[in-house]
Amino acid sequence: MTPDELRATCLDLNGATEEFPFPRHPEVCTFKVAGKVFALTTLTTSPLTVSLKCDPELAVRLRAAHPEIVPGYHLNKRHWNTVTLGSSSLPDPFVRDLIEDSYDLVVAALPRAKRLLLDWPGERTER
């Protein structure tokens, strides 16, 4: 996955925005939904990496199964993974799923009114 593909994948999600919130590190890019971060990256580094939110139990399994996935760099290592992209053996559809899972975890924690505004599929199944 290239930096442009990573950006497009993140921004294709409902309500996603791109921000550069760290004045001391202007190259660090965050992708947010409703003001909450679901992906963190530096699009200009090589190799390209992205930090993504993850269910803690799944995070451990992913790290054990894929050397390209490690505990989140400078983040809560229980809830975040850092994924190396580019020449890694992780297929793009798998990476897209990881990004969508991160987004879903963030949206699921939002108040119901915000989830409804996002037309989040998980909200449509709840009654």
TrEMBL record:
The keyword DNA-binding is annotated on this UniProt entry: yes
Gene Ontology molecular function terms on file: DNA binding
Key word DNA-binding present: yes
The entry's keywords: DNA-binding
Protein name, as recorded: Putative DNA-binding protein (MmcQ/YjbR family)
